[in-house]
Amino acid sequence: MFRKLSVLLIPMLILFSSGCTEKSAQSNKESAVFAEGGTVVIALEVEPESLNPLFYRSSYSGQLLTIMHDSVMEMGEDFTYQSNICDELIWSEDSLSITVSIKEWLWSDGTIMTADDIVSSCELYKNPELACPRLSDAIRNIKSVTALDNQTVCYSFESVRSDLVSALGHFIFSPSDRAAIIKDGRLVNTLTNESGIYELSKWDHDSSLVLERNENYSGKHSSLERVIFKIIPDETSRAIALETGEIDVLNNIPPHIANRLSSVKEVVLHNNPGRLVGMLTWNLENPVFTDPAVRKALSFAIDRERIVEDFLYGFGSIGKGPIPPASWAHDAKIYPDSYNPERSKRMLDKAGWVDSDGDGIREKDGVDLEFEIITKKGDSVRENSLIMLRENFCAIGAKVECSVAEFSSMIEQVRSGNFDSYLRVYSSRMSVDPSSLYASGPSSRFNYGNYSSELVDALLRLALAETDREKSVKLWHKFEFAVVADPPAAFLYYPHTIVGVSERVQNVKPHVLSSYNNIREWWIAKEDRKYFLKTD
Hints:
The chain has about 525 residues and is of the alpha+beta class. Helices cover about 25% and strands about 25% of the residues.
């Protein structure tokens, strides 16, 4: 059960008014004076499917959870892990264990977090009966977690990896929440005790979530008193809501919407390189794609510049390889496969795919160069790219069918292996571990195309085991080169993350880690506030 709201939001003029107030357009003036308090309204495309850190799947849930729950260590904006609840961290000589002393940290109900809370939380992730989908390779590598005293924990690991500290970034559960999860598992959709800067006070399903400042928070408090997440499924309605002042922040704005909003003076657009990689994944179980030379030839048939210019409206860059430019591990020297249909045709000729019967379709050993591309419905960049890809491939002698489907049915088809090629957008980990897409074996849960390369597997093992970043960068560059040479996918584009913010909200600095990365520093001048508080 959620806590009862002690206050009501009442409009100063009209709640979710149909137009911006005069003051909202003046909020960036030098006269704006910092003051604590105020409410920000953020739009969400869909409702979080769960606010249980063990079982959530979407980025919508994940970003909310990061401002509601703190961890022992957290990734900083330089992509290195930094102390959070951790007070001191000591490595063993063999780098196979880490001893952590924790700060005096309070749960939102005022009780003190203990070492046992951390130990028991880690055990929840590894509990086979719970079958936690958030069980990462970094947590799998934890051999044991032991409470040495009430404020000290020792993590022991199976093997040395570059991301050992990332294992300390797991969420922590209070005793009451742990008991509920053990009893009811996935039925526990939210936790009752938070350790982060905000706590959930109300959730009207399919409508909104209200987060209030956690007054028992042990770290630096947020300037804002309240954050409301408003569910608006339609992308046009979300954009209009930002224009008219119904909402203050809109994340993941589609490029065509951003292109329109760029002329709205009351809206500030933040256009940042993101962690996403748009790619066309080949199903290597299909005989058409078994030859790397054929996959490479098809890649040279793709007009990537058109995707960036016409479909992304410049809010992105051409895809080169598996690691996006926002990552410290990206190799900027890798060249993209240029648009060269004639080269594509020559490569296909050499690989034995020729149009011997003059019907316009290449064939080899009686098999036509024919395949289907599938993608999810509702993403204009992907849908437009799908049409372009069919044109590009038909121009070099391939017969291509296209299919657009709702995400749930499409991903079921992909996971079952019942597809030829899949136009997808993948979100890369900033701690850098692409094993789930490119490794063979149990780590490859997103390797839908059944890609397998001994060289890539070896480079993944070496890079993940290297704790020196300067040395690991060289290994990641070799990994990227190997994947590009033997491609499991055609890497198409790196879309930027576009965030729109009302001018009345100050100091919003979206980051590739999260659009809310500095949310505790957001503020609104008193004269720009649209809501006031009324006691029940």
